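Dear colleague,

Following up on Tuesday's group meeting, I ran the structure prediction for the two-component complex that the binding team flagged. I've pasted the input sequences exactly as they went in, so you can double-check that nothing got truncated or mislabelled along the way. The structure tokens for the whole assembly follow below. Feel free to forward this to whoever is handling the docking comparison.

Inputs:
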Amino acid sequence: MAMSFRPSSRRTSASSRAALAALFVAAPTGFAADRPDDVWVIRCGRIETGTGEVIERGAILVEHGVIKAVGLDIEAPLGAREIDARRFTVVPGFVHPTSGIGQDRQRSSGNQAEQRAHDSFYPYDEAFQDALEQGFTTLALQPASQGWLGIAGLSSVVQPTGGDGKKAAGAAVIEKDVQLVFTMNSSQQDKDLLRKGFEKVEEAVAKYDEAVKKWEEKQKKAKEKKEEPKKEEPKKEEEKKEGEAPKEEAKKEEPKKEEPKKEEVFEAPKVDDKTSTLWGWVKGSYPALVRMSRAADYLHWLEVVKERKLRVAFELESSDSYLVADRFGKAGALVLLDPQVVTYPLTSERLNLPAFFERAGAKVGFTASRRFEDHRHRVAQVVKAGFPREKAIAAMTSVPAAALGIDDRYGSIQPGRFADLVFFDGDPFEIGSKVSSVMIRGQMKFESEKEAQR
Amino acid sequence: MKKHFDLRGAHALLLTSLVAAFGWQPLRAQEGGAQEPPAEGQGAPPTEDEAEADGELVALQGGDVYTVTQGVLRGATVLIRGKKISRIGHGIELPAGTKVYDLSGLRVYPGLVALDSRGLLGSAGKIEDTADPFNYQMTLGLSAGVTSARQGSAVVKLTRGDLDGLVLRDNVGVSLTSGSNSYGSGFQQRESVRAALRKAASYIKAFDEWAERQAKKINDKDKPPSSAGVNKDFVKLLRHQEQAFANVEDAANLRAYAQLAQEFGFHLVIEGCSEGWTLADELGRAGVTAVVTPRNTFREPNEELLRPNGYSIENAGKLHRAGVDVCVAPLSGGIGLGGIAGRDLLNLTMEAAFAIRGGLPADAALEAMTIGAARLLGVDERVGSLERGKDADVIVLDGDLFDYRSFVQYAFVDGKLRYEKNAETFFSHIRPVERPAPTVVEAKQ
């Protein structure tokens, strides 16, 4: 059910297929069957790339589900199909960075770091189709947690599959374990969870390093005995240090060449699941989403984290978080906010929280609610109240993708990203504009005209 | 200690070389030459200031400075460097880059010290891990002039927006009216407390004798006395490392507690002390400190009793004249905007004003909320008066501290502006006066 591949790994096969296709189409016969059916040139009326850039009358070249080129002068490869979308404004598919839709697990609290969201994924939630129809192509699948408490676990990423007469609409897991999710309250419990987590990771790292050192010494002795030139091995070992748990397969290959003994395989010391999850975050394999509800939480967070360099995005509740906006701004932090104008605490004075954080220098992304049809209009209200329009699309696409640590593959119309595109028949923020079609990985998953005909 | 100074010297050296690198040398030399002579006012030898040449410079200029411990300096300047008060006096030359607040016409006081508070941190539990320094009650506390407060067993500073420096000290005092050390009112309980105190006293005596023997090295096998069953709190009390706190109102109990303090020779702080005025002399002789609430009228005089009794507005004044150190606490240590409004922490100065009304001299009333309270909490080394080297916890008012119309205009804690009346929603609409924005001293050409 779940597919997990990245453009990088896929592109190699894609390019070979393209070469094959080029051979076939060398002498155009005019038969559609001979054309590569997933190379497209999409001629657009207006492209908002999701990085702040706007291209009028540009085109997008899509090969095998991946964007190859974007710009004004896109030459269509031989045999590529063209889509005339000059009536439409094309934006990247929206990203919902904090969704729990499809999460089928019982909620729990405390340290649930070992929890993996895709382990309890229910793919047929009707909300996925609602999301698709409103232009959401990528949704986080967050691990279940009891309110905002403790360490929830690892998120996955899902994409709607769309549906037709035969197949039920739903979503599929496309990326596993992309992000650690936890809550940081001004409470001793939350702080202790993190403190102890860091301690355990440090212990595990120390143990691992020691094991590597011992193993290296052993290898060295073995080498001295045999007196064989085998210089590469220790080097590779150092590289492996980066890996969370070195895979045995890779190790097996090397000794096989010279000595077939299996005893020589390096065994990493065992680490419990909770610690290894945190370890993955600490060493930067994936980012964390830190949920905070008050300004003070950020100070307590800093107090626990100290000098550590960590990959994090923050999800903030409105409350009094504006009081630390300048500190988030100075750090250039990525902040996820509800797209709405709130009031200053204890007053009825309006406060455009997203705009406030944006002005302070933070990277602002929007969270979404289950009411997907409202999302664009809620963002429109925030734009009306002062959030820069040129950053609004990014705040719905590339920034939330960056929060999930997947912005090199999702969330913008740039070469190398998946062709997740939404076609609007006008400015996405105009009330009257509608989603005309939604493309995910180069395939039309929703077309409103077809829906109307049905 | 020497090493420390060496380091500082190195620091200064580094700074000078940096300055030289940026071509500021002539300017710096000029400034050094023009520095105020150390003889004037509280001015310090310039070398020491150079040594601690880090931290932002803020000057509070032109206000009437109520130092509490060193009188009133009219139109003087308080120079803050980083978290500490660097200098106080007239004609202080301000280094380039100093942020200057023009406070002419305003009054400058040390931040007030609240002997009891509730809710200022917006949370309960271990302070370091749960405090919310953005909590609006903390802002309101600052608006009342309070910059330090006892919260539970800790003394905290109202470092709004920062966790750094929030906790001033922990484990304040030994309570004699609640918990395991309660002296109570029953005979048995009292006897057990006295027995424990006696035990602590004999332990101290034995320990000191042992220490003396150790110093003389009389016997190597000499062991220290066993501390088993000795009340450690009482040891601290008798060694004058801590003070005893007792919440007592009526004359009979006041007498009993005062006698206990006198007998065992520890320092007693009596909170409440409604009937203190009826036995002021005795309390004075026992050397106690009284924390009074002048507007507390709960203890109605009982006409059937032949002795004077009940509350009196003269309580604070009479106690003060009898040699009792007087501190002031409002009826509620919280910020009350509801039922108890007007008699809560927001009105600490009004409580003191009522003590003045009842005969307490105004300077004693000022001490009662500043250095006096700081002494009780054992934090007078850091806060409670405006002195060179002390924490830069300063409040600025537009009138006398005891005038009901006065508002705190600015409150600085650890040298940082934490409250500004005009910038906060709470009181900015009441008699608004535009204050000039702070200026920055430019480098001399």
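The interface with chain B takes residues 186-188, 191-192, 294-296, 299-300, 303, 320, 323-324, 344-347, 349 of chain A (CB under 8 Å).

Cheers,
M.
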